[in-house]
Amino acid sequence: MRLEKIRRRLAENKLDALIVTSPPNIFYLSGFTGTSATLLIEPERSILFTDFRYMEQAATEAPGFEIVKVAGDPYTVIGEMLKGLIVIGIEEEALSLGDFQKLQKTLDGRRFENASALFKKLRQIKDETEIALIRQAIGITDHAFAQTLSKIYPGMTEEELSLELEFSQRKMGASSRSFDYIVASGIRSSLPHGTASSKKMQKGEFLTLDIGAVYQRYCSDFTRTLFLGKPESKHLEVYDIVLEAQLTGLKALKPGVKAKDVDAAAREVITRAGYGEYFGHSLGHSLGIEIHETPFLNTRDETVLEPGMVLTIEPGIYIPDWGGVRIEDVALVTNSGAEVLTQTPKQCIIID
């Protein structure tokens, strides 16, 4: 099915062949998970080039592909196969200058077109298998977070907590984490990407946890902000504003709406409350094989949302030298609105 879709895109864009070099797109089209591969997609054949180490694995993981063994790069072999074909699609964003120069030399006289956008558009709509795997990854993260809550205590370092969260996700079936965890407490919680440090968590502090799991190549993404000890009124005020913005964003997430309009709906809540200058990143992004995929929910993305898109909704307020709050769920765009896939409750969790 995916090969049929990409071949239709080749015909629509008047491309004679497509050379695929990025590992995520190689996996998306073929199912191959090895570290050495190049795909050649033509109207009538699909070829996977790899080296001796992966021949058996490729034959198992990529049914329907002709497997060709190469030593080193495959471009000379590809050049011999593409005699007579004029317009070649390449992934400009995933091809080094050196490899492109090899292609130019091997395929002298051909015209190259950037085909990266074909994959971005194709992968925006998740199929049922992909949605099921994303659900599994999200479930792992939800359960790991719930199990780890009882292990958090004042004096614990951010790095120790990060390890606990990763270990818990691994025990539940995650193959890895989907990004470097953000574990930021106290004034460090004002850092939108405050990765775990040796800082010890203390009472009277926010604690922002942004974590994710990879399950069978698909990612989850999740953020909750906790409070250690008794929060003051401003802590609760900021938390409630972010929660309102997050719920507003989820309500705005529906087919036919532009990505930037979902961002605007949630951003307006924070701006109206007087904290607009403290929300400087996009409202969310798609995810799947990669943690950041298109479309993005930001002030510029004109993409019209469609059923099958999976996106994060993650507004935040970050006040320097004071702290910050972010709340993030993953949601699936449906025919009538959005289904929130993240199951962890969103009320402010207080650890006393």
CATH architecture of the largest domain: Alpha-Beta Complex
- Work out the strand percent: 15-25%
> Could you name the CATH class of the largest domain?
Alpha Beta
- Given the helix and strand composition, which structural class is it? alpha+beta
Give me the strand/helix succession.
HEHEEHEHEHEHHHEEEEEEHHEEEEEEEE
- Taking the alpha carbons of the first and last residues, their distance comes to 52 Å
Instruction: List segments where confidence is low: pLDDT < 50 over at least 5 consecutive residues.
Output: none
Lateral arrangement of strands in the main beta sheet: 4-3-2-1-5-6
Count helical runs.
10
Q: Report Rg.
A: 23 Å
Main sheet specs: 6 strands, mixed
Can you give the helix content as a percent range?
25-40%
- CATH fold field value of the largest domain: Creatine Amidinohydrolase
For the secondary structure, the number of strands is: 20
CATH superfamily of the largest domain: Creatinase/methionine aminopeptidase superfamily
Mean pLDDT, all residues: 96
Structure at a glance:
The chain has 352 residues and is of the alpha+beta class.
Write the layout of secondary structure elements.
Layout: H1 2-12, E1 17-20, H2 23-30, E2 38-41, E3 46-50, H3 55-61, E4 66-69, H4 75-81, E5 87-90, H5 97-106, E6 111-114, H6 116-124, H7 128-149, H8 158-171, E7 176-177, E8 182-185, E9 205-211, E10 213-215, E11 218-219, E12 222-228, H9 233-252, H10 259-272, E13 284-286, E14 293-297, E15 310-313, E16 316-319, E17 323-326, E18 329-333, E19 338-340, E20 349-351
Parallel strand pairs: 1-5, 3-4, 5-6, 12-20
Antiparallel strand pairs: 1-2, 2-3, 7-10, 8-9, 9-12, 10-11, 13-14, 15-18, 16-17, 18-19
Helix pairs in contact: 4-5, 7-8, 9-10
